[in-house]
Design goal:
Blueprint (H helix, E strand, L loop, with lengths): L7 H18 L3 H7 L4 H9 L18 H14 L5 H16 L2 H12 L5 E4 L15 E5 L2 E11 L7 E7 L9 E7 L5 E5 L11 E11 L3 E2 L5 H5 L2 H30 L1 E2 L2 E2 L4 H29 L5 H26 L10 H13 L4 H12 L8
Parallel strand pairs: 1-4
Antiparallel strand pairs: 2-3, 3-7, 4-5, 5-8, 6-7, 9-10
The structure holds flavin-adenine dinucleotide.
Length: 384
């Protein structure tokens, strides 16, 4: 049996978020970018709609929703405000990591705040000399008595300057390479933690930056999962974030396409609406079709995850092509809207800048192609 329909509950949730995105997010999407403000009040409002805690179990204040439902949220919020999709994607990733691997105390203390939007969480893996090659991180956490002493520098971290806590990866056994990495929950106000923001091309409201750890004393209960198993236990979460990133980009691009369809129906050249020229309509059709194909691959990947089935290559294909096709679609929308879309009066230029960021964040095209190659060709032919 094969069934592509969403449940009644999922359709209701989609409609509710679609209305919210149109009425409350879209009108101010460009404002937060211009003012360089992280709209915490909207982050909390989304929590009130159940968005921030979708992957948090009910006992910790979340809704315990499935991955497909979480994907619906990423797509619909992406239509209104791309940057607020981090409340879906980043929170889902961190909620799963904490739920599946953190101690009972950490779950009790932090998950309810993640779900109710009071606290913002980041994930800190990348370093100045280690991005795609994540096993090359240099940060260390040395076990001393009942504490770990954390030192290192993380770069390119989303929500760096507004987060209340980070899931941080550091080497607890540097001699074991990527088999010696552990994950920790690090409150941002621990002594020795410092953050600084970047002047980014896009995702401005998300306040990306660097996080520094100088002799940070971390209570050992803040270790997530087993020591030295940080990559093995926690990395599976990226298969979820990659699928959600695809959908949030597709949401943003679909909104640009819908707005552009309205424009080409209204705007005339040589006495006829632009929409009557096949060079215009076929271009929109091409981008719409590419987005539809990746969208359904994303929902298939989320469904596989909900069934407990393998979905790494599906997640990587969505992470590779979702942001790529989305930025190509938005670029075309700018051209079809003419010179006015080149101004900051229209949202397309910001959507383009925002989406490009996630062609890099959470793994580049090549990083994802490496995952797919490993699976379909074989580990022994893994590219180096
Ligand atoms: C918007 C945004 C948000 C981000 N948020 C976070 C975050 O929250 N937390 C976090 O930890 N990090 C975050 N990052 C960092 C991101 O994950 C890294 O930038 C990414 O993994 C790539 O690493 P790098 O920048 O060091 O590039 P590099 O690894 O130096 O790669 C540079 C180029 O070389 C290519 N390349 C590298 N190795 C290979 C290879 N073996 N084969 C072929 N090509 C290769 C890459 O694909 C890329 O094109 C974010 C980045 C952005 C842009």
């Amino acid at each position: 049996m094969i069934n592509f329909s969403f449940s009644e509950e999922q359709e209701y949730f989609r409609k509710m978020l679609k209305d919210f995105a149109r009425e409350e997010l879209l009108p101010n999407y460009t404002k937060w970018d211009r003012e360089k403000v992280f709209p915490k009040h909207l982050w909390k409002k989304l929590a009130g709609l159940g968005v921030n805690g979708l992957r948090v179990p009910v006992e910790y204040g979340g809704s315990g929703a499935d991955c497909v439902t979480t994907g619906i949220a990423a797509e619909e919020i992406g239509r209104g405000d791309f940057n607020l999709t981090y409340a879906v994607m980043l929170n889902a990733l961190i909620a799963e990591i904490l739920t599946n691997h953190a101690s009972g105390e950490i779950k009790q203390e932090w998950l309810p705040h993640l779900a109710n939007g009071e606290k913002v969480f980041g994930i800190a893996l990348t370093e100045p000399a280690a991005g795609t090659d994540a096993g090359g991180i240099k940060s260390t956490a040395v076990h001393k008595g009942n504490k770990y002493i954390l030192n290192g520098e993380k770069s390119g971290i989303s929500v760096a300057t507004v987060a209340d806590a980070f899931v941080v990866f550091a080497k607890t056994a540097p001699e074991l390479g990527n088999r010696g990495v552990s994950a920790f929950l690090i409150p941002a106000d621990l002594p020795g933690v410092e953050c600084s923001g970047y002047e980014d091309l896009g995702n401005i409201a998300i306040s990306r930056g660097s996080v520094y750890f100088n002799d940070v004393e971390v209570p050992e209960e803040y270790l997530i999962g087993t020591e030295n198993k940080g990559f093995a236990t926690v990395m599976n979460g990226f298969d979820l974030s990659r699928l959600l990133i695809g959908l949030q980009c597709i949401g943003a691009a679909s909104q640009s396409i819908d707005e552009t369809i309205e424009h080409v129906k209204m705007r005339h050249s040589f006495g006829k609406p632009l929409a009557t020229y096949q060079a215009v309509s076929f271009s929109l059709v091409t981008h719409y079709t590419q987005l539809e194909l990746v969208k359904w691959q994303a929902y298939r990947g989320l469904w596989l995850r909900d069934q407990g089935l393998k979905h790494s290559k599906e997640a990587s294909s969505v992470k590779w092509l979702g942001p790529k096709y989305s930025q190509e679609a938005i670029h075309e929308c700018i051209l079809l809207n003419g010179h006015y879309a080149y101004t900051k009066e229209m949202p397309h230029e910001q959507r383009l800048r925002d989406v490009i960021g996630l062609e890099i964040g959470d793994g580049t095209a090549q990083a994802n192609q490496i995952v797919i190659a490993k699976e379909i060709i074989g580990k022994e032919y893994r590219s180096c």
